[in-house]
Amino acid sequence: MAKIRHKHRGQVPPPMVPEEQYGPWKGMRPPHTHPSAVPADRYQRPRARNVPFRDVLSGFPSAIVFLVGVWLLVGQFLIDHPGTAAGISSVWNDVGVGALLVLLGSARAVVPFSTMWAGWLTLPLGGWLIAAPFVLGYQQNGDTAAAIGNDIVCGALVVVLTALSLGWTMRSRRP
């Protein structure tokens, strides 16, 4: 068994647990030893990554933004969408914004500190969802109130949750 030299002093470090001196186990650690048997001054605790609770919490609102994007993609089958003044169906607005929210929300939920840019891109998308029924001129038919309300509520959720997530991220970045 090769002995590893201590880095700084050129000496062989003392074993973590007393070694057997006799018999077939000579020079080896006894099988019945446990780290609690090591004296406290010689025990080195494994280093765990310190993740404060607020760091984990800053990605949670973005996960809900991801779910709002999924709802916009699925909602086209559940809500009757009106046409717009331009003659296009408002479904395409919800599908486009929903797909972008799924991509940006998932990126921000997984690594919130590396993807601050995704949060800043998500804010205008939420604002667009709030303004889209009025800017695109959703045609007022019988059931269009559901589509207009869906876009406004989803947009408000995206704006509030993204602002909350960005605020938590920027606050936990401060020293």
UniProtKB/TrEMBL annotation:
InterPro entries: SPW. The chain crosses the membrane at residues 56-79, 85-105, 117-136, 148-169. Pfam families: SPW. Keywords: Membrane, Transmembrane, Transmembrane helix. Residues 1-41 are annotated as: Disordered. Residues 62-162 form the SPW repeat-containing integral membrane domain. The keyword Transmembrane applies. Residues 1-10 have a biased composition (Basic residues). This is SPW repeat-containing protein. The keyword Transmembrane applies.
